[in-house]
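Any chance you'd type out a single protein's sequence alongside its tokenized fold?
>
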Amino acid sequence: MSRRITATITVEGDEASLASYRRRVNELLDAEREAPYRELHDATRLEYRISGDGVPYPAFVTASSEFPELTVAVRWQHAAGAASGRATIRSGRLAEEATETAAASAAGCELRADQDGTLVIGVVCRRRRQGEWIGYAVTANQHAFFRVERSDGGEVLEASDGAAGEWAERWRIAADRVDYTELEPRAPIDERMAGELDRLANDFADEWLWFADGAAAETAIERQRYGAYGLKVNAANVRTLKLKTAMRETATGGFALAMTDPEASAIAALVARHWLQTARD
């Protein structure tokens, strides 16, 4: 699910620190060899231009932890213009981060992972229209598109089997009553919605996930980082930097990221309660 991005990274601060930071970042970038980079520095700030797969945070975050007095600003954009974003790095952590997509409505995401990094569930969703939400749900070993219709009478949740273009399961939820059905025949997802779901899932995966079945050159760095942290590699995995800096550690030793939109959070909880439970059974 990878898409090429272009990124501009600027670093500002004390001139002597900038020179040392540059040496350290270049050392890390050359070791990772993830993407070629250009240097457009002047006496008062560093500026890097990078094109590659995924936002090139790791080297700059690592170096930032060694030079906490410097401020690192990142701006990136997908080559096709599907999404863009920005981030500020201070003292080795993402201090601010924002992503903008071309979708009509903003999407929110929620993730939970165990102490060993295993992805319990990740959900990204957005309101499609009044009373209708669409999204993508993924665990360490399973994933699905979903749609939720909400009304005064309750909710209807439909989910695909993997990334197939058909609804395979349906839950009708009214108060404490839940009617579950495996659809036979399966119901096709209309072409327009299928395109929206695919873009939503791709944007989410580009930013948050890496997959064990990806090309060796694309996964080597993440495998190395997972090994260094003692994390478990599964079919789907949270990017190391996101796990360590964007998600908070929980009381049980795991990691979590919660949605800020209460309605989107309710949709994520609905999916976790019903689809995740069925996926485990």
Notes: Confidence is low (pLDDT under 50) at residues 102-106. The longest strand covers residues 177-188. The radius of gyration is 20 Å. The first helix runs from residue 15 to 32.
